Amino acid sequence: MSSAATQRAILPEGWPTPRGYANGMVAEGRVLVTGGLVGWDAAGVFAQGFLPQLRQTLVNIKAVVEAGGGQVEDIVRLTWYVTDIATYRASLKEMGPVYREVLGRHFPAMAVVQVVALVEPQALIEIEATAVIGR
Fold first, then answer.
1. CA separation, residue 27 to residues 2, 5, 21, 53, 89 (Å)
2. pLDDT score of 1
3. DSSP 80
4. Which residues contact 44 (CB under 8 A, 6 or more apart)?
5. What is the mean pLDDT of residues 19-43?
6. What is the 8-class DSSP label of residue 35?
7. Would you say residue 118 has pLDDT above 60?
8. Least buried of 66, 88, 116, 123, by fewest C-beta within 10 Å?
9. Cβ contacts of 56 within 8 Å, gap of 6 or more
10. Burial code of 23-46, b = ≥16 C-beta within 10 A, e = fewer?
11. Cβ(129)–Cβ(37) under 8 Å?
12. CA dihedral 46, 50, 55, 56 (to 10 degrees)
């Protein structure tokens, strides 16, 4: 059972509606948290380039959430770590279709942080997810 019915975005009165994310989320159910997931496949082979790694990272998040009994709509938070914020910003237009292909039009609370490096030297992006799965 999905927690979609027991989850909602939080928008303080008078704040503009964010595009592509939520300022906050309220949910009820079992909490599933992922580790930092990167853009490699099950064999440990990295996709080449920022957007292909983003796509694979999102696919990996979806797989972990589904393996835990949830679905994409159960995700309440994504924390993105990127090694180059300029590349992230330059890719914004292309990221939308990649994101929607994997996670649809579900936009949880999100944060993006530039880091000096990630543990995996080939990784350009790492994302942690939090999902709240039905009661």
1. 11, 9, 16, 29, 30
2. 42
3. E
4. none
5. 89
6. -
7. yes
8. 116
9. 39, 40, 41, 46, 47
10. eebebebeebebebbbbbeeeeeb
11. yes
12. 10
